[in-house]
Amino acid sequence: MHTENVAPVRTAVPAVPPGVLASVDMQVRRLCARYAQRLPFHGWHHVSFVRAKAVRFARANGAEVSVVETAALVHDVNYLVRRNSAASAGERLRLDVLARAGVRTAVARWIDAIVIEAEMANRGPDISVEAQALSDADTLFKALPVTPVMLSHRYLAENGITLRELADKIVGEQRPVHDGGFYFYDPAASATYEPACPSACRTNTIVAAIAPGPASSGVPSGTSATLLVPACSSGSSVLPVSSCRATRISSRPPAPCSAGSCTCR
Question: Quick check: pTM over 0.90?
Answer without folding.
Answer: no
